[in-house]
Structure formats: C-alpha cells, structure tokens
Amino acid sequence: GAGGWSPLVSNKYQWLQIDLGERTEITAVATQGGYGSSDWVTSYLLMFSDSGRNWKQYRQEESIWAFSGNTNADSVVYYKLQHSIKARFLRFVPLDWNPNGRIGMRIEVYGCTYRSEVVGFDGKSCLIYTLNKKLINALKDVISLKFKTMQSDGILLHREGQNGDHITVELTKGKLSLLINLGDTKTHPSNAQINITLGSLLDDQHWHSVLIEHFSNQVNFTVDKHTHHFHAKGEFSYLDLDYELSFGGISVPGKSGTLSRRNFHGCFENIYYNGVNIIDLARKR
C-alpha cells in the first residue's frame, strides 16, 4: 500500500512494534521501503515478546541474526524463518538504511494462531499424573514440555520407585539437570547415578523447551536445541518406577534426600507424556 513507517529521526534507537493481539506462531516476514520514496532499511533485527516488556532477539545458528533488508523502495524481500517464533509482540529494529534517504518500512508478518495449554505453579503446588498401567511401555518413555520462570531453582519433574530409583528434572541456579538414580547400589554398582546439566540463564521469563526420550538404555535429554545423548549399561534398561509422575514438585517430599525440594514457581506449557496431553487431562479433572 501507499505510505509506510518513517520515524522523524533516523538513528539506531528506532523500532516498529506490532501487537498481534494473541500469541501467534510466526513463520515468515517480508519488508518494503516507504512508498514512492528514497527511504528503505538495508538491515534490521527482529525481536519478540509475550508481554511487550521482556524481549528476546531472533537467533539463527546460535548467533543474533541481522536480516538483509531492501535495496529500493518497492521490491519485497521475503524471509521464511528457520525457526518459527511464538509470540504476541514483534519489533523490527533498523540497523542500516539508504544513506541518501531515511528509515522507511512497510512490513508483513506470516503465521497462524498458536494453540497451547498453559498451567501456572505458585511454588507450593504440583500436578500429579497417575499412569494407566495398560499403556505402560517399560522400554520407551517420551516426556516433553515448555517452561518459563523468574526463579533460578525448582523441580520440573519427578518420578520415583519403591527401591529408591528415581528420575528428576530440576532447575538449579538457572541450569537444568536431569538426575537419574538407580537406588540400590548393590544391585546396580555401575552407573548408580547419572547427572546431566544443560542450559544457562533459564530463569529469564522466556519459554524454554525440554524433551526427555528414554528408549531401553538410551537417554536423550534436550533443552531448547541442545541435546545430550547418553548410553547406559544393561541394568539401566528397566528402572523400577511407580505409576505416578509429578510435575512442578515432589508429591511426597523426603524420599529423595539429595534434592533441594524447592517446588517450581512459573508456567508450564503443553506437557506431554507418551503423546498424552497432561494439562488437558487436568482441566477435564
């Protein structure tokens, strides 16, 4: 269309902010310069937020990604994002523009409504899922969720057995640890305890994804896009665990003595256990 955004002052402190009205999955962006002008942006950063206060920069291949913008006022430059963004607010931050003109932008954002189930924890509660014994597959377990918090410590997930075996995912000083304990060290002298730590500064009030895949004695632990693969000895293929999963804390504190036992304070999104939507089940009681 005619017109476009052109701030009164062209410097690196300008930005164009969009409120999409609700959390949206953004898959692509496109830009033009100002209509019928010599005003266009040659490179820009893209930032996103759920609240409009706490911002994160779009990254690609673990580095801040500067988008190449326009070389004239009218050609459309379209980018399909390597990783989709899930956010309500977007900011386009010009870095450089036509030296013979000013900052000028017309933009378009592509995506779709993002459907999610979110549950909040107050640091005193936990969500307990009792598994259907018929659906248990001892050789395969897949747990996935997203979380965001401002607290540096808290238990995200805990599952314990009668003999002291337990699996725990715990946030400690902003890092996420997967702790697997084979309780009886006489029966399991090797690999009695596995402690894998991933991530840092995960208490930044942004969403972070967690995926735990346990196939026989192979464990994959993924936080955001970083995966730790672990291959344990034979005894590990079967953990003696109860038919109960606890999210956000430990349902009966005291059994696992080494843990900080601090319950999670923040939000979980889209908790899945072997394809079962846990938050949806909780809402349906």
From TrEMBL:
InterPro entries, alphabetized: ConA-like_dom_sf, FA58C, Galactose-bd-like_sf, Laminin_G, Neurexin-related_CASP
SUPFAM superfamilies: Concanavalin A-like lectins/glucanases, Galactose-binding domain-like
Entries under SMART domains matching the protein: FA58C (SM00231), LamG (SM00282)
One Pfam family this sequence matches: F5_F8_type_C
F5/8 type C domain ranges (all copies): 1-112
Gene3D superfamilies given in the database record: 2.60.120.200, Galactose-binding domain-like
Domain of life per record: Eukaryota
Positions of the Laminin G domain: 118-285
Keywords attached to this entry: EGF-like domain, Membrane, Signal, Transmembrane, Transmembrane helix
Subcellular location: Membrane
Record's keyword annotation contains Cell inner membrane: no
Membrane topology: Single-pass type I membrane protein
Leader sequence residues: none
A cellular component annotation (GO) from this entry: membrane
Entry's family note: Belongs to the neurexin family.
Protein name: CNTP4 protein
Naturally occurring in which organism (per UniProt): Donacobius atricapilla
